[in-house]
Automatic annotation (TrEMBL):
Organism, as annotated: Flavobacterium chungangensis
Entry coiled-coil feature ranges: none
Family: Belongs to the MmpS family.
The name this protein goes by in its record: MmpS family transport accessory protein
Superkingdom of origin: Bacteria
Compartment list: Cell membrane
Signal sequence, start to end: 1-17
Amino acid sequence: MKSILKTLAIVMTLAFSAVSCSSDNDDNGSGSASRDVKYEITGNYTGTASVTYFEKGGNALNEDMTKLPWTKEFTAEAKSLGASLSASGYGGVAGQTLTGKLYIGGKLENELTATANSDGIIVLSLTPYVFPL
């Protein structure tokens, strides 16, 4: 079950990345938009969970989420096209939640709260952020 959820999280992240784009351009034409990324997951979910995110080089990484809150901060490299965050878990209690937040340059770009279903399974997948070209 755990490997299925991890695979699902990775596939969803890559699928959303392939079809999304950002029309927001906060650099005002200067070409120097921030690449400072912060991921944050909070909530009361008590099951076994893992998180998938794009790291500074643009590669997708998956790691176990051993405690909440979970955070990761870095400056994305020039070759990285964007930032994405998803999490999934099993073994929780129906109604428990996870809230994911994605910050770029200190500005909240995306936030989503997911709720565990009657089987205690939870899936959280934020819309990816694409860095301006």
